[in-house]
Design a protein that fits this description.
Number of helices of chain B: 0
Distance between the termini of chain B: 40 Å
Oligomer: heterodimer
Shape of chain B: globular
Structural class of chain B: mainly beta
Structural class of chain A: mainly beta
Strand content of chain A: over 45%
Radius of gyration of chain A: 13 Å
Helix content of chain B: under 10%
Largest sheet of chain A: 7 strands, mixed
Largest sheet of chain B: 7 strands, mixed
Helix content of chain A: under 10%
Order of helices and strands of chain A: EEEEEEEEEEE
Distance between the termini of chain A: 36 Å
Chain lengths: 106, 118
């Protein structure tokens, strides 16, 4: 299975810029997607196809990358962005998710 | 507004069965691939199964093949997951999701908890 590796946790101050990384164990082309999950809630799609912003998601969120290395950028970070962020790939079967990066605010 | 509402979860003993349902509204259900994604307590996300728009094609992760069955009733805009021979490792919150072109999961229900324990 394709393993997606994410940093477990990050902390940032509101107003700053943060990048969250997702590294794939093998090529996933640009079939990499990002989700946000707040405590007690279901995940929400943020970015699809590595860099496409889902409708209704603030433009503070952006994504980049291809192949094996991907980043989700939040600029500027707001207090409401405190959540866990997951990446997911659908290039290789079975589709897999990263372990998630918990973003905390200072 | 798209709404996906799961039901049918609960506490069940190992080896027993449970059937989840997901009632969809606010979308043309028959036009969407659908999927189930689960999340074990304090763990990450795991795709479980998906079904094509007409229900003729289904696909499962290896760990649930032969035990779980995904199905749908387009007339009722409802998705199902029949779970047999349940194991403790199936304990999780199960989310019903739309599965856009078999790429990504764009709409999610609020989730339903399944606990497998004696």
């Amino acid at each position: 299975d394709t393993v997606l590796t994410q940093s477990p946790a990050l902390a940032v101050s509101p107003g700053e810029r943060i990048t969250i990384s997702c590294r794939a164990s093998e090529n996933v082309n640009t079939r990499l997607h990002w989700y946000q999950q707040k405590p007690g809630q279901q995940p929400q799609l943020l970015i699809y196809g590595a860099s496409n912003l889902e409708s209704g998601v603030p433009a503070r969120f952006s994504g980049s990358g291809s192949g094996t290395d991907f980043t989700l950028t939040i600029d500027p970070v707001e207090a409401d962005d405190s959540a866990t962020y997951f990446c997911q790939q659908n290039w290789n079967d079975p589709w897999t998710f990263g372990g998630g990066t918990k973003l905390g605010l200072k | 507004e798209v709404q996906l509402v799961e039901s049918g979860g609960g506490l069940v003993q190992p080896g027993r069965s449970l059937k989840l349902s997901c009632a969809a509204s606010g979308l043309t259900f028959r036009n969407f691939y659908m999927a189930w994604v689960r999340q074990a307590p304090t763990k990450g996300l795991e795709w479980v199964a998906y079904i094509s728009t007409g229900g003729g094609s289904t696909y499962y992760r290896d760990s649930v093949k032969g035990r779980f069955t995904i199905s749908r009733d387009n007339a009722k805009s409802t998705l199902y997951l029949q779970m047999d021979s349940l194991r403790s490792e199936d304990t999780a919150t199960y989310y019903c999701t739309t599965f856009y072109n078999r790429n990504y999961f764009d709409y999610w229900g609020q989730g339903v908890m399944v606990t497998v324990s004696s």
